[in-house]
Specification:
The protein is an alpha/beta fold. Helix content is about 30%, strand content about 20%. Among the domains are: about 1-40 and about 65-75 and about 190-270 and about 370-435, FAD/NAD(P)-binding domain (3-Layer(bba) Sandwich); about 105-170, no CATH class. β11 (about 220-225) and β12 form a beta hairpin.
Length: about 450
C-alpha cells in the first residue's frame, strides 16, 4: 500500500510525486495516457521538436522554471510575444486592406492599445458582479473616444486576447478574468521540446501508464482508487487531472466532494485552444519578425502567425484557434483547416505563397483525457476559485494543476507550483522549490 497516489503524470503530478518521494513517502503515479507530460506533449516524429501542448515559459523573472530548465540543461530561445502582446518585439502588422504598417502606424497602434488597456483596467475595477470582459472592453473603447477604425482594431485585439489567453470567447470571461495576466521578464520557447521537463522530473518515480482512474472512494482512513483495470489503496491521493475532466465527471468521487471544491469546478471555465503548425519549403515572410498579425475584421478567424523556425530549423509558422472557432475546426479535416489558415496569409503576402509541405494540428477539446486546453475565470467565477479548488478534503484528498493556482492559471509554472503546494501540505513542511532538480535527469526517447 502506498502512502500517496498521484493521479496524473503532467507537470503538477510529477512535481508533487517527486517532492513526496524525496520526503520519504511511497508514491504511485497513475496516468491514463501512454506517455508522461499530460498537456506538455512534444512530437519528434519529423526529426525536430513540435510542441503540441505547452510551448512558452511566460516570464522568466521570479519564475521557478527559469532555474529549473537551466539546471536540466534545456536550451531556451527568447520569444517574447507568446502572451499575445501588441508589441515589444518586431511584429509584421497588416491593416484592413492587407498593407503592412509603417513605423508611424505601428507607434500609433501601440499608443492606442496602451490607452485602451489603461481604460480597461479602470473599467474592470469598477465592474459589477457578473459582468464580462466584453462589457468592460466596450466601456473602455467608448471612453477612449476612438473613431470607427481605431475602435474596431482595439475591439478585435481584446477579442483575440481572450481567445489566446483563455481559450474562449470574450463574452464568457469574467470582467476580472485577465487581472493576473502580467508577464515579468522575457518569454522563451524550448527547441529541445518542453516535455523534457516533466520526463526529467519523472526519473525514478513509480509511474503506471495506461491507468485511467474512474473512481475515488475516500474517508478519513484513506483512499481507494479504481482504474479501468486495477484498484490501488493509499493513505491519501493528489488529483491533478485537467479541469475539463473534473467538470465532465470523468472521475466519480464517493462520497461526493464538498461544495468548497465542486463550486469552483462548476464556476471556472475550461478553454479550448488549438495549434496549427505550417512548415514551408522556403521562407516567404520578413526576416526578424516574431509574428505576423492581421488587424481588424479581416483578422477573423485567423489573425496571428508566429515564426517558430528557431525551434525546427525549418521555415515554420504557428497559428492558433481559440474558443468557438477552435471547437469548430476540431470537426474539420486537416486539409480544410490548412486551407482556411492559408487564406489569411495569402491575403497579406499574395496568391504566390506556396502550400505548406507539412502541418501539425491539435484537437485538445476532443482529447478525452483533458477535454480542453486550460482553465479561465468564467463570468460568475473569481480568481479565488482557483485556490479554493485546491482545498484539502477530509485530510486525504488534494487537488493540483494549473486550474488550482490563482496567480498564474493556464501556465506550466502555475501547475508546477500547485504540485509543490500539495506536497508541502502533505508533508507539513516547507520544501525549497530548487530541490526539484536534485536527481532529475533528461531521459532519452
Amino acid at each position: 500500500m502506498a502512502d500517496t497516489i498521484v493521479i496524473g503524470a503532467g507537470i503538477a503530478g510529477v512535481t508533487a510525486a517527486r517532492l513526496l518521494q524525496a520526503g520519504g513517502q511511497r508514491v504511485v503515479v497513475l496516468e491514463a495516457r501512454d506517455r508522461i507530460g499530460g498537456r506538455m506533449w512534444t512530437d519528434r516524429t519529423a526529426g525536430f521538436s513540435v510542441d503540441r501542448g505547452a510551448s512558452w515559459i511566460h516570464g522568466l523573472t521570479d519564475n521557478p522554471l527559469t532555474e529549473l530548465v537551466a539546471e536540466l540543461g534545456m536550451d531556451a530561445v527568447e520569444f517574447t510575444v507568446g502572451s499575445y502582446q501588441a508589441g515589444g518585439r518586431p511584429i509584421a502588422d497588416f491593416d484592413e486592406e492587407h498593407r503592412r504598417f509603417d513605423a508611424d502606424e505601428t507607434r500609433r497602434w501601440l499608443a492606442d492599445i496602451d490607452t485602451a488597456d489603461d481604460l480597461l483596467l479602470q473599467a474592470s475595477a469598477a465592474s459589477a458582479p457578473g459582468e464580462t470582459y466584453a462589457d468592460v472592453s466596450e466601456r473602455a473603447i467608448a471612453a477612449s473616444g476612438f473613431d470607427g477604425l481605431r475602435a474596431a482594431r482595439v475591439r478585435a485585439f481584446h477579442r483575440h486576447r481572450t481567445e489566446e489567453q483563455c481559450g474562449t470567447d470574450i463574452d464568457r470571461v469574467a470582467a476580472h478574468g485577465l487581472d493576473e495576466d502580467a508577464i515579468d521578464g522575457d518569454e522563451v520557447i524550448l527547441p529541445g521540446g518542453y516535455d523534457v521537463l516533466p520526463r526529467s522530473l519523472a526519473a525514478g518515480l513509480d509511474i503506471r501508464l495506461g491507468q485511467q482512474v474512474v473512481a475515488v472512494k475516500w474517508s478519513e482512513a484513506g483512499v481507494r482508487v479504481e482504474t479501468a483495470s486495477d484498484v490501488f489503496e493509499a493513505a491519501r491521493a493528489v488529483v491533478t487531472v485537467p479541469l475539463g475532466v473534473l467538470k465532465a465527471g470523468g472521475i466519480r468521487f464517493a462520497p461526493e466532494l464538498p461544495e468548497v471544491v465542486t463550486g469552483p469546478i462548476e464556476r471556472l471555465g475550461m478553454g479550448v485552444f488549438d495549434k496549427v503548425f505550417l512548415r514551408f519549403a522556403e521562407r516567404f515572410w520578413e526576416d526578424g519578425v516574431y509574428a505576423i498579425r492581421q488587424h481588424g475584421e479581416p483578422g477573423f478567424p485567423w489573425h496571428s502567425w508566429y515564426d517558430v523556425s528557431a525551434v525546427s530549423g525549418e521555415p515554420m509558422l504557428l497559428t492558433f484557434a481559440g474558443g468557438d472557432w477552435a471547437r469548430r475546426i476540431e470537426a474539420m479535416d486537416d486539409d480544410a483547416i490548412v486551407a482556411s489558415a492559408m487564406q489569411g496569409l495569402r491575403a497579406n503576402y499574395g496568391d504566390a505563397v506556396p502550400d505548406p509541405i507539412a502541418h501539425w494540428i491539435t484537437r485538445w477539446g476532443g482529447d478525452e483525457f483533458s477535454l480542453g486546453s486550460y482553465s479561465y475565470v468564467a463570468a460568475g467565477a473569481s480568481h479565488a476559485d482557483h485556490d479554493a479548488l485546491a482545498t484539502p478534503v477530509g485530510g486525504v484528498l488534494h487537488f493540483a494543476g494549473e486550474a488550482a493556482w490563482s496567480t498564474d492559471p493556464a501556465t506550466v509554472h502555475g501547475a508546477l507550483l500547485s504540485g509543490h503546494r500539495a506536497a508541502e501540505r502533505i508533508l507539513g513542511a516547507e520544501i525549497p522549490i530548487a530541490s526539484l532538480a536534485e536527481g532529475a535527469r533528461p531521459e532519452s526517447d
